[in-house]
Amino acid sequence: MKRTKPKWMILVEYWGFLLLYKTVHAVPFKTALKINSFLFRILYAIGGKTRQRTLSHLIHAGVAKSEEEAVTLAKKCYQEFSKLVVEIVKMDQMYDPAKIKLAGDPESIRRIMSPDGVTPAETHAIVVTAHYGNWEVAGTAFADKSRHNMLSIMRPFSNPLIGEKILEHRRSSVHELVDRDATAVRRLLRALQKEGRHATLLIDQHAAHNEGVDTVFFGQPCKTHRTPALLHLKTGIPIVPELTRRIGDDFSFELVLGPLIEYQPTGDKEHDTQVICQMCTTALEKMIAEQPEQWMWPHRRWTNINRGHHRKRR
Fold this sequence. Notes:
The protein is an alpha/beta fold. The protein is built from 11 helices and 9 strands. A hairpin with a 6-residue loop joins strand 8 and strand 9.
């Protein structure tokens, strides 16, 4: 169980964040990118647990074949995250549906996205996604492009003051957010079965024992949240893997859709759940591998990694 932050720490973090927020919001977009790029280069140089985890995970996943490759990729990851921070703050100024392109599996695009931008898509979906590119803009952009509203489940922020500031930009008239709690699954089912909305879940972080099933990600064992599989088995609504990939430094993105997952149950619920979770994990892995620097590599993901050993070796 995570420890609750003391109030003084929450306030100190929030004041620092607010200073950066107001600065970024006030200056032109390109200037904000340069400021944040500089700040994140300093953060990388300082080091700390986040840098150590990033390097360790890149090597563990086999994405980086050496220490040198890991350092190069880690620096790119930091720069991609620096852009995300600016994009979150500037979303109310910069978001333009015309700058959101569609990419990936043609059949998924045909069925899940609106053909003319006006008529709702053929079907809504269970969207499984990852902390990749700009996942903050994904909910609104996906809803706009499909003409189906979105419900997303989110983990509460460790700093609620910073969280509320970020949520001001993440939520919209077409994108509702609810906390991941005991009522979350019921809300997802209602959105899918009665309201005709997409339901979105981020599934690229470690799942607790009672929430996850054993899967493999970049060749290494991990635990993946079972909720998307259970929703699919219950409703029959297709699962679509999705990433929101940054394609420039002008607030342009592409919604990358993987092939639809429509699984025929065997009657063995545990087996079916594991198979579907692996299908979701594999689909996201393939898309992440195309431009791995846009994924959040510091996240805890694998069950067989000793990050302390890598830190000691370095």
